[in-house]
UniProtKB/TrEMBL annotation:
CDD domains: CYP6-like. Signal peptide: none annotated. Its EC number is 1.14.14.1. InterPro entries: Cyt_P450, Cyt_P450_CS, Insect_CytP450_Detox. This is unspecific monooxygenase. It is found in: Endoplasmic reticulum membrane; Microsome membrane. It comes from Parnassius apollo (Apollo butterfly). One of its GO terms (cellular component) is endoplasmic reticulum membrane. One of its GO terms (molecular function) is heme binding.
């Protein structure tokens, strides 16, 4: 919907519409994007995705979905868990397939999730107890309880996410100033060559420091995230009356704001030949810093992705592990311009998946 509105009104800075009785604003202009995400964030610190304010299903009581003071305090408490020091300690080779499978389940779009989500949006009171992530909840609650018991409710020294959360809990009740009361095509050859060098130098061992050296791989990942970001749009909700100075339009509290990053990142006025996969765009000497408020795969400002560094490192480690031993090519059924699954929630999935052809390759040393 956000992308559709973006392309439909190319001359406008903002576009308003109703989504299940909710007034919604798509912001097309990078300067206004900057105001909402950073400069005037104090008017837009909520996402407002959980429609019912009191009855919230357990899987949606987390930092991404939290609003107001709960968000602020959680964010404050969790930020230290994502520093680069913690990331270096995190084992990139750690296996935990149960969690990985559950992770995939959370983001897999299904008709059931879509219908429940719609019903909750249209009739919040009537469907307040319906759960969009009921199946994941049934799997994850016993799993986490079991792990907590095994660790005797104390951090185990493994430095994984459960340890990090146990450390947060040990710090006790969170207190702080209230925010609510403030005023105001094929694997490019160059990637393979870089990987071969990397292998020779680091003896096939992945580490935080080694991955940081792979500049071209990082550019290739960033270019992928430009063409198909995980979140098609960012969400904020206006919490106090705000007038956009450039156009003198006043936004009332409750209006939901969508920042259409899938569209912005594929607009030729910001990225020449956007349909071309060209990682060089992200080399420091080529990247246009004016695009800072247009290229937003991890969001921006105080509510940007808390796991950006971890997500980047994990993705690069995963890509490096695959590309070290395989070359990846489009297969006979690969679609050149994949379509977004219309059942997708916040995270966009590709309709029918993306079949790829993996060929084992010789490593040049
Ligand atoms: C490639 C991997 C990832 C991508 C592309 C990604 C992308 C995003 C985006 C676009 C947002 C919304 C930002 C905004 O609204 O401005 C977000 C928020 C968030 N992400 Fe990530 N993310 C990734 C990995 C991770 C990881 C590894 C974690 C945690 C382990 C994480 C935890 C979160 C949380 C908790 C939020 C909500 C933050 C808040 O509202 O304060 N993400 N992510």
């Amino acid at each position: 919907m956000a992308a559709e509105m973006y392309w439909k009104y190319p001359k406008e800075k903002i576009v308003g519409f109703y989504r299940a009785f909710r007034p919604t604003l798509v912001v097309r202009d990078p300067e206004i994007v900057k105001r909402i995400l950073t400069t005037d964030f104090i008017h837009f610190y909520s996402r407002g995705i959980n429609v019912h304010k009191k009855i919230i299903e357990p899987m949606l009581r987390n930092l991404f979905f939290a609003d107001g003071d709960v968000w602020r305090l959680l964010r404050q408490r969790m930020t230290p868990a994502f520093t680069s020091g913690k990331l270096k300690a995190d084992s990139l080779n750690d296996e935990n397939s149960a969690f990985r499978q559950l992770g995939a389940k959370v983001f897999t779009p299904t008709a059931k999730k879509l219908v429940i989500g719609m019903l909750k949006l249209i009739f919040p009171e009537l469907f307040k107890y319906a759960k969009t992530q009921g199946e994941v909840e049934a799997d994850i609650v016993p799993l986490v309880k079991e792990i907590l018991k095994q660790r005797n409710y104390q951090p185990s020294g493994r430095n994984d996410i459960i340890d990090l959360l146990l450390e947060c809990k040990a710090k006790g009740t969170i207190v702080g100033e209230s925010i609510q009361h403030f005023k105001p095509d094929e694997t490019p050859e160059i990637v393979k060559l870089e990987l071969d060098d990397f292998l020779a130098k680091h003896g096939n061992k992945m580490s935080y420091d080694a991955i940081k050296e792979m500049t071209y791989l990082e550019c290739a990942f960033k270019e992928g995230m430009r063409m198909f970001p995980s979140l098609g749009f960012l969400i904020r909700q206006c919490v106090s009356k705000y007038t956009i100075p450039e156009i003198e339009v006043t936004i009332d509290p409750g209006v939901q704001i969508l920042i259409p990053i899938q569209a912005l990142q594929n607009d030729p006025q910001y990225f020449a030949n956007p349909e071309q996969f060209r990682p060089e765009r992200f080399l420091p000497e080529e990247f246009d810093s004016h695009n800072k408020y247009v290229y937003l795969p991890f969001g921006l400002g105080p509510r940007a992705c808390i796991g950006e560094q971890l997500g980047l490192m994990q993705s690069l480690a995963g890509l490096a592990a695959v590309l070290c031993c395989c070359s990846v090519e489009p297969g006979p059924t690969t679609i050149r311009n994949p379509k977004i699954d219309p059942r997708s929630g916040i995270v966009q999935s590709i309709k029918g998946g993306l079949p790829l052809l993996f060929r084992k390759r010789e490593i040049k040393n």
